[in-house]
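Open question from group meeting: does this chain pack into something compact, or does most of it stay loose? Before anyone orders reagents, we agreed to write out a predicted structure and look at it together. Recording both the input and the output here so the notebook holds the full record.
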Amino acid sequence: MGTDAQRISTEPDRFAAVNISQAFRVGDLVLVSGQAAVNDQGEVVGVGDFDTQARQAVRNLDRVLTAAGSSLDQVIKVTIFVTDMSYFPKVVALRGEVFSQPYPADTICEVQALAYPELMFEIEAIALVDGNTIDIAHS
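Structure tokens returned:
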């Protein structure tokens, strides 16, 4: 028997208009589509303000994770896209505010553009539903 993938969405589902699912829960994992600084009305938040955009994207991520029965504390992997790698120190600070040890595995990439020209930051994630992250250090 195969494993089912349950589609996760929040209302309003602004992803539906562009044929994207917000997330899928597969067993005890949640795979979340990229979240950016877009509000429920589909408007970009914080145009020209990296910090505001990053925080809105994380709020959107948190909302989808909550709908899936997960949380930011259960994120095990993120991929972060920025339009300028000079924002890297701000990303490091944000990760320290949003996540706790053991920090999620992470990939950060500079991209030429995101879905809307005003966007500067996007984050996608994989999270646990049941269970916790455990830090096992090896020497």
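Observations to bring back to the group:
The chain has one domain: 5-128.
DSSP finds two helices and six strands in the chain.
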